């Protein structure tokens, strides 16, 4: 077992565990006892693979971005999660979890969402399976992301506004947890990132690990070597990064770089750069690194990108950071927006602002010439057009 | 034997009433005065909540009180400073209740030592799981004589209840249903069956029912089966009213059916 994967106690090094009130214990324990057996069963694997292929459109291409490569002096490959059905990597996880929920006999699905991508991906699989769907979304985010709210409603989901706290992702997660406490029998909670109590971080990482599994194969075909020199991804909670890193964790030659959102500057007071600003603590059921006051109150993060606007990171990331296996960098709003525009103009691909944070890291790297770099292009930028237009004045 | 054990050991104590409220609410310095009024009015023990920014087990009333308390400047450090004179004024058992992250940042050992120093008898930390408690913290809790109270819900298996009973040193906190705080206890056969199932386990620890106890009726029904019951949200709602200090005695008397002026 890799030292970077979860151990039998639910921990990644110092991080993880299941810090949950007793009301959630039966559901989380049921998942813990069954998730491995279910996702390794033949029936599950067949249906999961078939849906990823025929419904999501996998494998997603690994695209050698030639003009971007010329600019930076390396072979830059983009893992095109933006081409998935619903426009981001989030659907890999919701497909996996809906099949799991079905096998656990659950009839009602709840989820939290920030920008709405995970909410849309959850509403999508609930429509696909004919299951009831309730999505919690911060009242502020509902205002900011009207098209995604409409998509969820069209697919039959009920969208409930989280009115507590800062009315964003963290608060939507609190409301989803409260819903689960109040509906302990028939409900499954589809968490959208590699956060939450064990086994969620491991389960979500397994569903997202398809990203690096395909990347290895595609790199082999394109370059003759399965492993890149660098693998890059953005990190909010960290699910696309967890998927991008998964099959490279035990390959010391692969340098792993995670890029957090630094908002208006790491120390501006408006940032979501968790590893730089955070300390060890417990949030949403696991021990990790989070932004908090000396008294242990969670600090509201800020990023121009709603998907990175989270005060913690998943426990596996906390461990990759602390152990030094991965490097945690950050990009400001400005750096990300410029990187997003650059990709659009050099390659004709409008990235999600989340993914643009990973692209921004290229500006800060120096390459020897023929190194292979894989970047997870986690989502497409259609949902961000308003933001791009406002920022650049198009 | 600490104050909690003494309270439950006394045969004369039937239908024990505990009141929960949030420290620093409605004003930063109201904590101790409310405790004194509650004791004088006839509450049998107290649970003082220390606020947290993300209280996932709580409904809107206690969420709101936590937000206000944090805005007022309440922290664990401030609370322990306020409680420094606790035992000059209060003789009934006092527990602290809150979420694990503020305790981790304060330091678990220091937290237990502070509890002991000011005379806090026990703590309820719903998101500190049994496994973590046993593995890392049981020793320091016990060394300081601080009872850690565990929760039991209708979905908790008998095996797990037995384990909780073995680890508990004060009482067992029985949730009326799997719910966040502030919902009314439903009058149902299911609830009665659940309460009597628990009673028939003959646990070594007394059982106290909490969550959803908002009226005299709910209090009586819960204490038909359990040693006591806890009123939280309904009391916190009272604290939001003007002149709440004057209304506390009547609130307690009505729950315990003590004639006013008694």
Automatic annotation (TrEMBL), chain A:
Pathway assigned in UniProt: Amino-acid biosynthesis; L-tryptophan biosynthesis; L-tryptophan from chorismate: step 5/5
PROSITE patterns to which the protein is assigned, alphabetical: TRP_SYNTHASE_BETA (PS00168)
Short name of one Pfam family: PALP
Gene3D superfamilies per the UniProt record, alphabetical: 3.40.50.1100
Tryptophan synthase beta chain-like PALP domain: residues covered: 57-379
Source organism, top-level taxon: Bacteria
Modified residue annotations for N6-(pyridoxal phosphate)lysine: 90
GO molecular function: tryptophan synthase activity
Record-listed E.C. numbers: 4.2.1.20
Cofactor(s) needed by this chain: pyridoxal 5'-phosphate
CDD domains the UniProt entry points to: Trp-synth_B (cd06446)
InterPro entries registered for this protein in UniProt: Trp_synth_b_CS, Trp_synth_beta, Trp_synth_beta/beta-like, TrpB-like_PALP, TrpB-like_PALP_sf
UniProt KW keywords: Amino-acid biosynthesis, Aromatic amino acid biosynthesis, Lyase, Pyridoxal phosphate, Tryptophan biosynthesis
Reaction(s) catalysed by this chain's protein: (1S,2R)-1-C-(indol-3-yl)glycerol 3-phosphate + L-serine = D-glyceraldehyde 3-phosphate + L-tryptophan + H2O
A GO CC term attached to the entry: cytoplasm
Group of enzyme by EC: lyase
UniProt similarity note: Belongs to the TrpB family.
Protein function: The beta subunit is responsible for the synthesis of L-tryptophan from indole and L-serine.
Subunit structure: Tetramer of two alpha and two beta chains.
Stated name of the protein: Tryptophan synthase beta chain
Biological source species: Parapedobacter indicus
Gene expressing this chain: trpB
Automatic annotation (TrEMBL), chain B:
Family: Belongs to the TrpA family.
Functional pathway: Amino-acid biosynthesis; L-tryptophan biosynthesis; L-tryptophan from chorismate: step 5/5
Superkingdom in the source lineage: Bacteria
EC supergroup of this enzyme: lyase
Gene from which the chain derives: trpA
InterPro entries in UniProt: Aldolase_TIM, RibuloseP-bd_barrel, Trp_synthase_alpha_AS, Trp_synthase_suA
Oligomer and partners: Tetramer of two alpha and two beta chains.
GO cellular component: cytosol
Keywords on record: Amino-acid biosynthesis, Aromatic amino acid biosynthesis, Lyase, Tryptophan biosynthesis
The name this protein goes by in its record: Tryptophan synthase alpha chain
Catalytic activity: (1S,2R)-1-C-(indol-3-yl)glycerol 3-phosphate + L-serine = D-glyceraldehyde 3-phosphate + L-tryptophan + H2O
CDD domains reported in the protein's UniProt record: Tryptophan_synthase_alpha
The keyword Lyase is annotated on this UniProt entry: yes
PANTHER family assigned to the protein according to its UniProt record, in alphabetical order: TRYPTOPHAN SYNTHASE ALPHA CHAIN, CHLOROPLASTIC (PTHR43406:SF1), TRYPTOPHAN SYNTHASE, ALPHA CHAIN (PTHR43406)
Single GO term (MF): tryptophan synthase activity
Active site: 47, 58
Enzyme Commission designation: 4.2.1.20
Purpose: The alpha subunit is responsible for the aldol cleavage of indoleglycerol phosphate to indole and glyceraldehyde 3-phosphate.
SUPFAM superfamilies in alphabetical order: Ribulose-phoshate binding barrel (SSF51366)
């Amino acid at each position: 077992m890799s030292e970077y994967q979860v151990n039998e106690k639910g921990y990644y090094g110092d991080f993880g565990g299941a810090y949950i009130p007793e009301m959630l214990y039966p559901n989380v324990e049921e998942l813990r006892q069954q998730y491995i057996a279910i996702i390794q069963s033949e029936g599950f694997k067949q249906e999961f693979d078939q849906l990823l292929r025929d419904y999501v459109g996998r494998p997603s291409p690994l695209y050698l971005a030639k003009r971007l490569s010329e600019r930076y002096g390396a072979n830059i490959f983009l893992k095109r999660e933006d081409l998935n059905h619903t426009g981001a990597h989030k659907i890999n996880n919701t497909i996996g979890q809906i099949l799991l929920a079905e096998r656990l006999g659950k009839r009602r699905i709840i989820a939290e969402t920030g920008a709405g991508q995970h909410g849309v991906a959850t509403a999508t699989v609930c429509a696909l399976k004919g299951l009831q769907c309730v999505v919690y979304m911060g009242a502020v985010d509902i205002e900011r992301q009207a098209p995604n709210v409409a998509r969820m409603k069209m697919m039959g989901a009920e969208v409930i506004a989280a009115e507590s706290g800062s009315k964003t992702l963290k608060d939507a997660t609190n409301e989803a947890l409260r819903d689960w406490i109040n509906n302990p029998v028939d409900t499954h909670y589809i968490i959208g990132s590699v956060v939450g109590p064990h086994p969620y971080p491991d389960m979500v990482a397994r569903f997202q690990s398809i990203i690096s599994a395909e990347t290895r194969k595609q790199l082999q075909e394109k370059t003759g070597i399965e492993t890149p020199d660098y693998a890059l991804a953005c990190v909010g909670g960290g699910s696309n990064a967890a998927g991008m890193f998964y099959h490279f964790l035990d390959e010391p030659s692969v340098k792993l770089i995670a890029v957090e959102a630094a908002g208006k500057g790491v120390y501006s007071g408006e940032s979501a750069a968790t590893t730089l600003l955070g300390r060890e603590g417990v949030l949403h059921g696991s021990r990790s690194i989070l932004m908090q006051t000396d008294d242990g109150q969670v600090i509201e993060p800020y990023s121009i990108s709603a998907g990175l606007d989270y005060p913690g990171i998943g426990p596996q990331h906390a461990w990759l950071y602390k152990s030094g296996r991965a490097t945690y960098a950050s990009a400001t709003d400005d750096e990300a927006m410029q990187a997003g525009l650059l990709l659009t103009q050099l390659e004709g691909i409008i990235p999600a602002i989340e993914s643009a944070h990973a692209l921004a890291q290229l500006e800060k790297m120096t390459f020897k010439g023929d190194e292979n770099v894989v970047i997870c292009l986690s989502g497409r930028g259609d949902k961000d057009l308003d933001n791009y237009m406002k920022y650049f004045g198009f | 034997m600490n104050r909690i054990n003494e309270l439950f050991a006394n045969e004369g104590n039937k239908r024990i009433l505990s009141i929960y409220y949030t420290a620093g609410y409605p004003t930063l310095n109201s904590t101790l005065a409310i405790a004194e009024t509650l004791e004088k009015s006839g509450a049998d023990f107290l649970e003082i909540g220390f606020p947290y920014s993300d209280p996932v087990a709580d409904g809107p009333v206690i969420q709101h009180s936590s937000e206000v308390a944090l805005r007022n400047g309440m922290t664990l450090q401030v609370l322990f400073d306020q409680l420094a004179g606790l035992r000059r004024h209060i003789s009934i058992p006092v527990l602290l209740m809150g979420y694990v992250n503020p305790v981790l940042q304060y330091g678990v050992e220091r937290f237990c030592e502070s509890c002991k120093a000011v005379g806090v008898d026990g703590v309820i930390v719903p998101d500190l799981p049994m496994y973590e408690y046993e593995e890392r913290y049981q020793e320091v809790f016990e060394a300081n004589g601080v009872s850690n109270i565990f929760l039991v819900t209708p979905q908790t298996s008998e095996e797990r209840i037995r384990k909780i009973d073995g680890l508990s040193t004060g009482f067992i906190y029985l949730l009326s249903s799997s719910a966040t705080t502030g919902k009314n206890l439903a009058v149902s056969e299911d609830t009665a069956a659940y309460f009597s199932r628990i009673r028939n386990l003959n646990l070594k620890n007394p059982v106290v029912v909490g969550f959803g106890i908002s009226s005299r009726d709910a209090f009586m029904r819960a204490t038909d089966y359990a040693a006591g019951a806890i009123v939280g949200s309904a009391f916190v709602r009272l604290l939001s009213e003007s002149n709440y200090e004057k209304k506390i005695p009547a609130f307690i008397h009505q729950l315990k059916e003590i004639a006013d002026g008694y």
